[in-house]
Amino acid sequence: MARRSKSPAKRAGTPIPERSHTPLPLLDRLERRLAALGLFGSSAPPLLLIGALHDRTRACDQFISMLRACPPGRHLELLRKNPQGVGIVVALALMIALAPRRPRLATAVATINMAHTFPFLSNHAALWLTALAAGTDSAVCRALLGYGYLAAGTHKLNPDFMHPVTGCMADFGGRFARLADAFGLPTLADAAEASVALVGPPFVVLELIGGLAILLRLKALALLAFAALHAPTALIVFYDFGSVALAVLWPDLLWFSPRALREHWYANIIAAIALLPLTSAAPGSPAFLRAQALRPALLIAAALRLWRRGVWFAASRPRGRRRCGVLGLAAAVWLAVQCAGPHIGLNTSGGFSMFSSLRFHPDGRTSHSYLAVPPRWRFGLSADIVRFANATGGRKLHFPGPGPLREGELLPRSELCNIAWWHQIAVTTVDGEVIEPGWLPCSSFRFRKFSPDGGAVPRWCEW
Predict the structure, then answer these.
(1) Does residue 103 lie within any of the structural domains?
(2) Interatomic CA distance for residues 251 and 244, integer angstroms
(3) How many structural domains are present in the chain?
(4) pLDDT tens, 207-263?
(5) Burial class (CB in 10 A: 0-12, 13-18, 19+), 36
(6) From the CB of residue 17, how many other CB atoms can be counted at a distance below 10 Å?
(7) Is 289 domain-assigned?
(8) Residue 238 covered by a domain
(9) Does residue 117 form part of some domain?
């Protein structure tokens, strides 16, 4: 028998908490104030918080690995130089402590922590923040996810994606091979590396079909494409984006009872806490790879259990039953511009070009086979290139991506200005220009750095 749709009152969803809790006046007052302001409404936190939980847990994994690899006696120096890592650990602890009883406050903590890297937003953080602005039950929110998949698939339509050495499909095959070796499956490892050329085209097609299906609200096709993409890639540690995308997709298709949402949250908390110590294994070792594959496997199992308890919305349900107005529309426009940015000179990083091997030249050209935008139609942000010389006091500047910023490397002026703002330190170009840090970043768009010879980037698979 087909399952029945729930009443409109139940469709709106409820927050995770249902039970009474020990009163803490300050936290209770903050929670009531957020509710009064209409921020972080009750339908948004439950699943979005689970996406944030996995995102912050993976970032916490990476920070723990950095601490472990730090030379003896240098740990305090690392903590001082990496305040964002400390912030991720603190935010994760606060989310876990607050979410069961104060979901709005926990969502506020997650939002602040995800936004603290602005304008260096990763794609999953950008999706999470824009989805929160749009509201998980709005048509705009579904459009955001569809845009993301369409952009990701379109960016992969370039010859470098399938390069046998530097392409991202070769990188994926190598990750699967190392994982198979860690579990003692050499035959499967050889098959993973040999099948790269066969798997690449269907992978891109799945992303494009998934994006269209989400935009058109073709439920079965969207979920099939979604599962085919994220179930295998989660095993090679690409589960942070998948968990956020899951939180964005499901509320538009299924209704979940408060009890199911609460149990799903607790199951994910237990998995996150239980598996964090496993990152004490040496990065890249078989024990580390097995531990890394265990968390996404538990995520998939928890998602399947939640899926079985969900109830399909009626086909006649009005689309976009709670449209989010100006804020959600602005979020959709912002994300769409981010997706088009690599081709119109607004950004060379982010914009859902992750793991696409899309190469960028200092003059604004890309390696895309079908989207060669004429120079007169491109913005000048990527064309205003400067050459980095040094920072005040000779301090090394951490560049969001592959290593520190080195003398002679090229990057757009707006990106160097953003880096100065991020570190709150003056930087100097080879021409003697001094860029002082401002109160605000110079641009909300990210750029990759170029090598001193001005070669195209990236040279290998990067997010």
Answers:
(1) yes
(2) 12
(3) 1
(4) 999 888 888 878 778 888 888 888 888 888 777 777 788 777 777 777 788 788 888
(5) exposed
(6) 18
(7) yes
(8) yes
(9) yes
